[in-house]
Known about the structure:
Layout: H1 4-24, H2 29-55, H3 60-81, H4 90-119, H5 122-141
Helix pairs in contact: 1-2, 1-4, 2-3, 2-5, 3-4
The chain binds fe (ii) ion (2 copies).
One fe (ii) ion binds at residues 44, 47, 70, 104, 108.
Amino acid sequence: MPQILELIREDHELIRGLFDELESSPEARDVRCITLRRELPGHIYAEEVTLYAYLRDTVPEEIRRSLDEHARVRDTLARFERIPLRDADWMPALVNLRREVEEHFATEETDVFVLAERHIDAGVLFELSEIFQEEKEKAARYVTV
Ligand SMILES: [Fe+2]
Ligand SMILES: [Fe+2]
């Protein structure tokens, strides 16, 4: 299994792809929304119990900032989920959610990844990837559709 930062990057790519499809393919929106509602919260939760938990004591300010971003993404996702697909507010809400998520991903891929590589041993980064996958799968089971 690749190390955790590679898994996180793969998730980010998958979620960016989902946003592309949601914006461009109206016919696939309902099923892509279900996937987004499973993938995004699962990804965020799995990061918190692996990478963030591991870095929290070493770089508390950066992790606090990332946790705040997670809280905002969760709130925005919850508001987005309440808007019906055919509502005129749906696309602006999607664009807003995407911007927030992409800004957070960019922070992670630059700042947080650098900190992880600096402060976590390579062997641990590999070990964390297994826990990351397990936690994501567990979180996906609790998603109500
Ligand atoms: Fe994150
Ligand atoms: Fe992430």
